[in-house]
Amino acid sequence: MPICDTPHILIVNPWIHDFAAYDFWAKPMGLLTIASMLRQHGIQVSYIDCLDRFHPHAPKTDPDARYGRGPYFKTRIPKPCGLHDVPRYFSRYGIKPQWFKEDLLNLDQPDLVLITSLMTYWYPGVQETIGIIRSVFPQTPIVLGGIYARLCPEHARKSCGADHVADGPAHKNLFSLLRRFTGYSVTPAFDPEILDSYPYPSLDLQTTLNYVPLLTSRGCPFRCAYCASRLLEPKRLLRSPESVIEEIGYWQKAYGLSDFILYDDAFLVETDQHAIPILEEIIRTGIKVRFHTPNAVHIRGIGAQTARLMFEAGFTTLRLGLETADFDHRQEFDIKVSEYEFKRAVNCLREAGFKKNQVGAYLLVGLPDQKLDATEHSIYFVKQIGITPIAAYYTPIPHTALWPKAVAASRYDLESDPVFTNNAVIPCQKQPFNWKTLSELKALITS
Known about the structure:
The chain is of the alpha/beta class. The protein has 14 helices and 16 strands.
């Protein structure tokens, strides 16, 4: 591999191929953090977001709708092989292929392409993205990383067309990959074990910046049977309150932004050491912003003090990780919360000033062997408590404790192809997908 003077790296956020997709505050934060690490070392970075809702060719949309959320541009495409029995339309979410190719042709040839991946069953969008990049830059090596690459590395190596599949954490392996594929060697200016040393993600590379993803910690101490967080981030790392406040102030002053999206998996774990000092510092400095928690917060960490501080700090959209109200049998899924702790947390939130439409509890739907009446009971329970139930459709994830049960319960061969793990088709039941059941659940939630 010839040594590049200063390499030019193209980073790409690929398309989503799915039955449904929506921008619920979804930014490729890992990819944009990689971009900032490269730029920190003087490396030229180009960026293309195939999901860009504000691409110059895309229909105009309101960037401030629903605190920055909004629908992706979509184009209907054929369903993947094996899912033709599902009576739903299938689409490519994101920019049109000709727009993507045009954007690629407007670039100087890169020395390396880095592409990310998220849901395992979205890999067909990754395949298409890599195929078009390869057609424009046939000599440029392509490295695939992200969640799909880490959870299904062998499938990715066989299926996606990348030159290399990075199945380890990017923040630890980035510069060894850079050296391997470009010959360019640098000493990292940050410590992978110290989050305060990381540069801010390169959000300025986005066409439109209308909200800020914010990460105050990495990792989660729980080992929930349905979740891969502990597999992907086995070590818990915390940022200091000072660094979090500095970053919030930076984005607010530089871009006038008011909406901050907490991407933490465990913001409210060990609140005395982490969340409470951050919340107190936000209040002390008088920062006026809105915080949203689409990844959910741990219910056990919500007491009177935490609820009051979150309300005063500007938490606006609060999601609780309840998952099920079947407290007598939830031990096979997780040990995060008891019925008493859930009721106490909701009471504290309401007393602090949160309204019903601000607080929602995620409920897992479509678990292996889950009965409809169990789901209905959970919905009724949450509504009776006085907050909003939110259906979270279960995605079977390889290597998690629940994976063997998911494989046994599914009408598909989940182990043969990640595409069958799509939560939109309710894969962990023997009977075919049924709109009637979903419609009834949605009606129950909204009634």
